[in-house]
């Protein structure tokens, strides 16, 4: 029997989940739930119902796992605890500082309802968190380094768009190659914010806007840009559409540690992602964790979990014996 | 209370475990067990008893987890099931083809005794297996590539030493950089054995041996060298000791997959190890899994498990809440 997946929210993530379900033979898409008018929403999979989000409760017996595809700022803090009352759920909540609060709220809701919820599933938090935990556990004497990019930061792009005179903007976070090489060499450097990443901004100006003033406003913006080496490129709207519509991203997690009686041996554990489509890769991770949630829930597990709590074998469609014979 | 670790076998691995226990504040070394004469064995930690291996049973109440540091060829197939009768155990059994049989034997012994055993813990099998399983689960449409090296292969070094006229030998397995770059580019190439790795041999000849005949015998050896581009360097015994005593190793696991309605997006998940000391890094992994075995055993888990069955959080000395706040 297939794992019946529901999708809540049909943006980039929701569309990615739809593709990911197709790529996993043991899953089927049961329904898409939306806060928009369902009749106005055309989805890619023929024959799958599109349902109003506020009618989801009636689908409890027809969905094994609901994948929540809303945003972390305002959607998921409400949606995940609310939907955990009715469904096993998976979300990609990615505001690191608020994970403990989100975990507590979702755990309470899921325990009360007897459901299982996996939060903060994706690549950071998600696979990068796994790399950090495995790396620090096997090399207890060492340091962690996380680099992001090259990829678009939505938050930084939005910050530029709020500058007067800016019509559109795209901001790339770029890891500094020299810093990466220093980390890989095992020297365990102290790196400042400025030494780890640069910020590349592509900006379309409003007619008549002053490029000097806009560039100055961006480069001096506290938190977002002031602590970085930032470059600003002014481009046309056509160039923005042609060259900067992609959603590529990636990054590096490196654990650099030492062993030996005199700490004479250096070890580097490096985990790297290079992604053409950030949302499609993220939804591949969500689908694999939906499988794990389905299995753990059938074993009677309830409450909230993260990627750190889930045995890797639960993510795979293969049996334990098959994994041991072919992948161990 | 500390986790009380026992070590069986005091070679490179056993000495590495001793160092790893020191690096983990929640562990203590309870005893070292040896098949040699205990009075002849001097270990690095003062005050820790050295005990005859055949007297281990009497230590059941004083050891939480026994780490088995024997070899995969002849030691572990006997030792792991035997010691699982008395202890929770961890081993680094690394003969991939025989893992299913070893798992079955250890699982039967551990279930009967009510103990927990983790087998095949290390980096391959071990962390590389994790990389393969996570990578294939999140990118179901794709291919896996594993490259090893640059590092010494003990099996290949031993094979050279059996060639008449060879006094000593060291063989390095070297990944082909061009092949790695093709895999990282996302083209998903079919790679032959010869295209993935080269073999570098350093050989000390017996007096009067014929270098041409020895080189020919090595390069044409079936399975070990015939399918590879092999280079043979003749060196002095002094140079062997000076330059080739190191135990560095490493490698790469790469999952290259595609997503998108037309498979138009390529994704690369790369896990890399660069290790100055293969045995010391391996024992760091063994120590972390000893912690996980200790915790799972206290929860009542019995039988045989592998790295694929163990939730990552169990490896860390930090609590779940601390991990979520600081590492997720």
Name the overall outline of chain A: globular
Mean pLDDT of chain A: 96
Largest sheet of chain A: 7 strands, parallel
**Sequence stretches where pLDDT stays below 50 over 5 or more residues of chain A:** none
Tally of separate helices of chain A: 11
Note the run of SSEs of chain A as H and E: EHEEEHEHEHEEHEHHEHEHEEHEH
Q: Which structural class do the helices and strands of chain A define?
A: alpha/beta
Molecular structure report:
Two copies of one chain form a homodimer. Chain A is an alpha/beta fold and 328 residues long. Chain A has eleven helices and 14 strands. Chain A has helices at residues 12-23, 75-84, 99-113, 127-138, 154-161, 177-184, 193-196, 211-219, 237-243, 278-298, 320-326; strands spanning 3-8, 27-34, 50-52, 65-68, 88-91, 116-118, 142-148, 151-152, 166-175, 197-205, 229-234, 249-259, 265-275, 303-305. In chain A, strand 5, helix 3 and strand 6 form a beta-alpha-beta unit. In chain A, helix 1 (12-23) packs across helix 10 (278-298) and helix 2 packs parallel to helix 3. Chain A is globular. At the A-B interface, helix 1, helix 3, helix 4, strand 13 and helix 10 of A face helix 1, helix 3, helix 4, strand 13 and helix 10 of B. Strand 13 of chain A pairs antiparallel with strand 13 (265-275) of chain B, so a sheet runs across the interface.
Q: Which key terms come to mind for this protein?
A:
homodimer; 328 residues; alpha/beta; seven-stranded parallel β-sheet; four-stranded mixed β-sheet; 14 strands; 34% helix; 27% strand; globular
